[in-house]
Amino acid sequence: MEPTHVPLAANSIKILVWDVPVRVFHWLMVLCFAGAYLTSESESLKTVHTTLGYTMAGLIVFRLVWGFIGSRHARFSDFVRGPAAVASYLRSLLQGKPQHFLGHNPAGALAIVALLVLGALTTASGWFALQETSGEQWEEIHETIANLMLAVVLLHVAGVIVSSRLHHENLVASMFSGKKAGDAGQGLRRGWHSIGWLLLLGVAAFWWLQWKIS
Q1: Which stretch, 83-87, 162-166, 168-172, 198-202, has highest mean pLDDT?
Q2: Which Gene3D superfamilies does this chain map to (predicted)?
Q3: Could you tell me which of 105, 100, 43 has the C-alpha nearest to residue 80?
């Protein structure tokens, strides 16, 4: 069933929407993509670049799994919507009466799906680029996909800024705190802190291992 927007009540409060694993995944992806992109041309930082790339691949696998078994707003069934829903949401923005969604809005959801796909393609092409037999032809493909991903990231950031202003809600802050405006009783009852910590510790352990063997 395709989710519908939730009008905000006058007495709305801050409720928990994003669980800890979603937030840890989000900011680790930001760190990894930014770091990998900035180190892409440095031969001396090649190990850092590849480590961040492998981390991105692992994070994407985790997010795909969590998208099916995670908390309510982490699941793809909660935010993946069709073109009609995206068009309706964009019209509401242009009309100055934006539809409110507790989870990802349709435009944000489209960007997230695109970034997951592009992230997977970027890391896969990066792995092929490291292979001696086919490295050169994949390097250009890898760079092209990474640049396309950067473009989507910038569009996503612009969309977050616009939506934050129109909704009068700091969406960046909500990805830190996990909280957004909503009605009492609609928030998550569990933040899944243990899974978030395991994800963070797993990434830290992988980085430590890469540092030790480099």
Answers
A1: 198-202
A2: Transmembrane di-heme cytochromes, Chain C
A3: 105
Which three-class secondary structure state does DSSP give residue 105? coil
Phi, psi of 16 (to 5 degrees): -75, 120
Q: Counting every residue, how long is the chain?
A: 214
- Per DSSP, 9 falls in state P
**How far is 9 from 15, CA to CA, in rounded Å?**
13
The secondary structure of 157-178 as a DSSP string is HHHHHHHHHHHTS-HHHHHHH-
CA distance 145 to 161: 24
Q: Give the pLDDT of residue 1.
A: 39
Token pair belonging to 115:
């970034």
Per-residue model confidence as pLDDT tens digits over 35-53: 999 999 999 999 999 999 9
Q: pTM of the predicted model, to two decimals?
A: 0.91
Residue 1 in tokens: 């069933």
State pLDDT tens for residues 136-155.
Answer: 789 999 999 999 999 999 99
Show the tokens assigned to 67.
């998208």
Count the neighbouring beta carbons within 10 Å of the beta carbon of residue 95: 8
> What's the rounded Cα separation, in Å, for the pair 156 and 197?
26
CA distance 127 to 52: 12
Q: For the chain, list the domains and their CATH numbers.
A: 13-213 (1.20.950)
